[in-house]
Amino acid sequence: NARRKMCPEAAEKPTVIKARAGLLWLQKTQTVQDENVNGEYGLIINGHSLAYALQKDLKLELLRTACMCQTVICCRVTPLQKAQVVELVKKYKQTVTLAIGDGANDVSMIRAAHIGVGISGQEGMQAVLSSDFSFAQFRYLQRLLLVHGRWSYIRMCKFLRYFFYKNFTYTLIHFWYAFFSGFSAQSVYDDWFLTMYNMVYTAVPVLALGLFDQDVNDRWSLQYPQLYSPGQLNKFFSKKVFVRCVMRSCYTSLVLFFIPWAAMHDTVRDDGKDIANYQSFALLLQTSLMIVMSAQMFFLTYYWTAINQFFLWGSLAAYIAITFTFLSNGLFFMFPTSFFFIGTARNCLNQPNVWLTVFLTCLLCTLPVVAYRFLLIQLYPMITDKVRYKAQKEGLPTPSPYRPPPRRISTRRSSYAFSHSQGYGDLVTSRKFLRLKSRPSLFGQKDSPVVENQPQVYRTITEEVEDSQS
């Protein structure tokens, strides 16, 4: 009953953490160093020994010993001990744990782990109902982790980076505008743009990114399991990545605000009329912001589908259509207090200097990002970049040969796995008690005279008794 591998990241994190640091590193992290191991070892421990090893003064030594082994097998343990082993790894190794089981005795372990996986087998549905993911066979765990799990992690990290980037940029522009509005809390955008920005304009493209994006396809993911390692090391999202995202948002917001402000200061139209007003400046900021956010979404997307294309270009088309509709004369005459930016779109966006300002602003926002990504891939490529480059050169790898599932010889099972005490173990595992005695058939090996159509000979009771006595 091998239940679990403890410490799958022992090679990357060879220390046992006793106290975790605070959010801003106000506390010191206490660690216990592991010993150097020259060789490959395994640890097998049963329930009686594990009960002593999980005591307060021995559990850290158990964890250190387990992390120095390649494989740890805990056999004949109780459901509570399974959960205690998972809690021990979660608390002192600070790693993401996964528990997989198929019966009711695995429920506590599945609930204790960060990720619970249940196998729908012949031992009931308790493990499936208590798990986060469920499938029918254990071999599907490889695809769940190396393909779908890795894709999900990358999509979530991209979603978070883009979400923070677009909202920090959108909000910091208000902060820079406060210096010019006397901190009067006046919004730099149109009121309807404030409502539609997160609900309509930028919500659907990032949703498509979080659902369909993938760096490499499933064949390359299974062929190179090393692609899973950046997720274990938090390469795609961490505190450093968050700080870089905030710094990039500050730069983008500065460019988006001060470039249009300097370009439109004391600017006139082709007919000599003044164009430098609050409404035109707000429209210029909104348009530049939408184009920059769409460009960032374009750079983040690796796997393009028809849905991604439709949502990305559809969001820009929806912005243009809604803007011209809300700034039209008809809505102003019907609701003059709600749509007061009348005629701003057609009077501002028909000027060449306005589009030149938008182009310059978007170029200054996106060019540093492209240059940074280019240098990063050329100088410090990750395993993901190398595999993507190889996939572009070679195409799809050859699929693995199909292996038919093994045929189950017998579906008869024993309930001895639920027993945790020594007893009639040899008898149960030998399955001798399941072998039934051969019963005589109704007509034996030789057919009866009735079947063979032979004359029957009847004997009296006296003859039967004489034969039995002799």
Automatic annotation (TrEMBL):
Q: Which residues cross the membrane?
A: 159-180, 192-212, 241-263, 283-304, 316-342, 354-376
Q: Identify the residues that the record assigns to the P-type ATPase C-terminal domain, covering every copy.
A: 128-381
Is Magnesium one of the keywords UniProt gives this record? yes
Q: Which residues are the signal sequence here? A: none
- Localization (cell): Membrane
Write the record's keywords in alphabetical order, separated by commas: Magnesium, Membrane, Metal-binding, Transmembrane, Transmembrane helix
Membrane topology category: Multi-pass membrane protein
From the Swiss-Prot or TrEMBL record, give the protein name.
ATPase class I type 8B member 4
Task: Please name the source species.
Answer: Ataeniobius toweri
What lineage is on file?
A: Eukaryota, Metazoa, Chordata, Craniata, Vertebrata
Task: State which gene encodes it.
Answer: ATP8B4_1
